[in-house]
Design brief:
The chain has one domain: Tetracycline Repressor, domain 2 (Orthogonal Bundle), CATH 1.10.357. The longest helix is centred in the last third of the chain and has 25 residues, at 118-142. The protein has ten helices and no strands. Helix content is 75%, strand content 0%.
């Protein structure tokens, strides 16, 4: 049991480092040798924990995607109004970009390098998530809580705005994470209200 936990934590550490390198250099430009050096082990030893670079990308992408899907399941099952659901989802996205920045960016930018059938599966999961998000907005429009607006466009704008948090991470004179979250929510949610 102890050995299994140790192996799992080593794999988690490797995946964290892989996400960092994939974000900095890109998936294609990162080699297993680069990763082994960063982790501090021999390249051959890396294969004791992970089969391939593609397996690492699959783990990162699907861990993030599944986290978002499970949260969407929770939100959809609540009795909250559309505005509250959208605000809660938006805050979740912002927190993920602040707290799990490397993995979320890699998931968003490098998923195109996934091998089949993972590529198609991920693409479908991503598309389905956006449709579910848009459906919440459309529900709010139907109930006259939200302005008549193209829901898929709103989702696209919100998600791209949240991805812009990458520049907040690089900023030297930045506001707090809480201020960033509150400002983004204020701007985006108030823009929807009827």
């Amino acid at each position: 049991m102890k050995a299994t936990r140790k192996k799992a934590s080593k794999k988690e550490f490797i995946l964290k480092k892989a996400a960092q390198m994939f974000r900095e250099k890109g998936f294609a430009a990162t080699s297993m040798r680069d990763l082994a050096e960063t982790v501090g082990i021999e390249a051959a030893s890396l294969y004791n924990h992970i089969r391939s670079k593609n397996e690492m990308l699959e783990s990162i992408c699907f861990d993030v995607a599944n986290r978002f899907t499970m949260y969407m399941d929770e939100i959809e099952s609540t009795n909250h109004g559309s505005i509250k659901k959208i605000e809660t989802l938006l805050r979740f996205h912002i927190k993920q970009m602040i707290e799990n920045f490397e993995e979320v960016i890699v998931c968003d930018r490098e998923w195109k390098h996934l091998d089949e059938p993972y590529l198609s599966n991920f693409h479908n999961q991503r598309r389905t998530y956006r449709k579910r998000f848009a459906a919440i907005i459309e529900e709010g429009i139907a109930k006259s809580d939200i302005k008549k607006i193209d829901a898929p466009t709103v989702v696209l704008i919100m998600l791209h705005s949240v991805n812009g948090i990458e520049s907040w991470h690089r900023s030297t004179a930045k506001i707090t994470a809480k201020e960033l979250e509150d400002n983004m929510v204020l701007i985006m949610i108030d823009g929807l209200r009827k």
